[in-house]
Amino acid sequence: MGGRKMKLPVAGMLGVMLSMSAAAVAQEALTGTYNGNFEVHTNVGPRKIGVTMVISSVEDGKIKGTGTYQQGSCRGDYPLEGVVKGDTIRIGSTAKGGPSGDCGFGFRGTIEGNRLVGNMGKYEVEFRK
Q: Residue 52 sits in which domain range?
């Protein structure tokens, strides 16, 4: 019986270490460049706005990166910070940007393989790696 009690804690520790390692690998896999677009309705009809999100680091569930609107009144780059928990991601700009300096960049959604699916404000968007 004594030997058996020793194996259970070791097996438990091994399981914790493997799950921590799997979480670290999953977070590492999140880094990269994601491209997408969303459609806005203007007085001249629908218009697609291209967006890019570069996730440069993920550590302990904290995300850092850069977001870019490729055109439109908010075009430009935005420094981003956010969090990831399980398959849920929330990320937003840490400073206002755009030509007038009054725009933000934010995304809330889920991680689905190499896709991030969710919303930028009221607009649905799907980013692909």
A: 31-128
